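Escalation from tier 1.

The customer reports that the assembly of two entities below gives different structure tokens on two consecutive runs. Tier 1 could not reproduce it. I'm attaching the input and our single run for tier 2 to review.
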Amino acid sequence: MLRSLRLARTLATESHSEGAAVSRGDFTDAIKPEIPLLLHAARGLTSASDVEDLVQETLSKAYRSWDRFDGRYLRAWLLTILRNTAINAGRKKRPVLGADAETFASEPDTSLGAKPDEMAVQSDFVATVRRALLELPEHYRSAVELVDMDGLSYQEAADSLGIPVGTMMSRLHRGRRRIRELLGDQGTFEGRRQ
Amino acid sequence: MRFRGNKGEISQIRCKTAAKWLQFYLDGELSDTIVQQRVTYHLERCKNCGLEAETYTQIKTAISIHARDLDKRSIDRLSAFIESLD
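Tier 1 run:
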């Protein structure tokens, strides 16, 4: 982390020392809200221990390219940089679960706007859905995560995965159906619907 | 449910058609407003499809919760990194 922090900072500073007119404020304001998205997308591109470094390199490259960004499709632009950075560095995808499994297994946030007496049921439900998500094949899971966790549009998710939008939709819908089937097998919905 | 398509009335669609469009509908990816209206109309009147929509909505919500508690420390570090770029 620290190694790449220094490297990224050096690269970014060198690039802009040549006088490129970049609005620092604009960059900071625009990019900061996208950090969670980048972190999540990076989890599908590299090992858990390398996620933060990959995002940091991406931020550095984005900063250096900010004066050439046309102002449209910010997320797609960032995700393209992220994916190319991962590819260029020869990063490998994580085997299967790794750190994500620990995160998913932790106590869920039950901020669904529930009344206190509903929170225990919701907590169980959220945990069950997370476990079902973890059981999905990687290509289904990535599609579901990008749309349902990160709020990407179909096109943005397809861009981030580098696949046609039709393929992304197919993976997303099948992934959700698989989760629904897994929950159905466990009788989850019967209990909730009474 | 069957198609009727009387003038001035929203055409009804079959459950199979509603199922085909359901996930696009819930994701806000149906650009055709007529199709949107037909799916809405169907979901409001068909108990089984309404429950199916509710099910997928609950799944989407449960998954989205995870995004909000993703590694806050990493976010803080990367935010500081952005601030440091100068």
